[in-house]
Structure formats: C-alpha cells, structure tokens
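tool_call: predict_structure(chain=1)
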Amino acid sequence: MQLKEILKDIKIARDNLKNVGKSATIFGSARFSEDNRYVKDAQKLCEGLADLGYSIITGGGGGIMQGANRGAFARARTHSVGFNIMLPFEQKSNGFLTQGAKFSAFAPRKGALIENSEIFVIFPGGFGTLDEFFEILVLVQTGFKRARIYLYDEEFYAPLMEFFRTSLLKSGAINESDLQNFKLCDSVDEILTDVRRKENE
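tool_result:
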C-alpha cells in the first residue's frame, strides 16, 4: 500500500463527510442474512435514529450494515452512508446508500467510519467488528474522542465482559472506570431512550 493511495483515501473520507451532520456509526457482521434478528433490529434502530436527525454510517456491505442503511434510507430524512473497501473477495455495496465511497486501505476507512460520529452501536460480529470496537474504546479511554458506545446483546458479549473483568481489570491492565465507557443493551428501545435522554440533558 503506497502513501499516495492512503492520502487519496483520506481525501475521499473528508469529501464524503462534509455535509453529513450529526451521525451514528453501526458496526456488525456482514455474514447475517436479511431475516436475522440482529439485522432487523439494526434496521429498526436506524429508523429511530434517523427520526432523531442522525445520519447513519456503516461499512456499506451486507448483513448488519445493510439493515442499518436500509433503516436510514427508508426514512429519507438524513444521509445513509456506506464506506466500503476493495477486497480480493469483492464486498459489494448494499443498495440502501445515499452516498458512499470505496477505500483501498483499512486504516483510512476505519478513520472515516469513526471521525464524524458521536454514537456507535456494536452489534454482534467477528474480528472486524471487535477491531472497530476496540479502536473507539481506546480513543475514548485516552481522551481523543467523546462518544457514546452501545454493545448490542448482553448475552452475546457476556464472555468478552468476563474477560475484561477477570483478566484485564484483575491484572490492573484497565481501571473500573474504563468499563463505564460503553453500555450493554438488549433492545432497540433501550438505546433510543438513552439517546433521547442524553440529548435532553
């Protein structure tokens, strides 16, 4: 990956984020089918967030990302943004975007997914989803970003929470306060209620 390609990606990100306004980024697996409950919940959540004036940003692919973009697209009140990436196994953009771009490298793409948003919802997913979650968590922990992070489905993330407490916290690698930088949620309504409450504070 050459520097000029990375710089090109950064320009693409800036151009696409210029007029997006306040936004929420949704992360989660691309492997779930349209009838998966998480995909349906992502759509419902993003319909609600769009009604509150949030543009929706995703990685632009299928699964959770498609559900989220579909929800924003259906409302047609805000932007439905997808930042895809060129892969050897082509990841196609979903058909529910009002704007988007395809990146050459993961790093500038991840920056674009994170830069503009103040809300992050982490649906169940694999290594990519966890990578994105930890990136945001570190930015918040170190004071480089203020954000609200929601982990969706307490049961799914229970083993990760156990690891945080029994290994990271117990060894002193993190503080108790670090575990307050995100919120576990089990329903769309729980997240939307919290977002509304924060906006009224």
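agent: The CA atoms of residues 125 and 184 lie 15 Å apart. Proceeding to next step.
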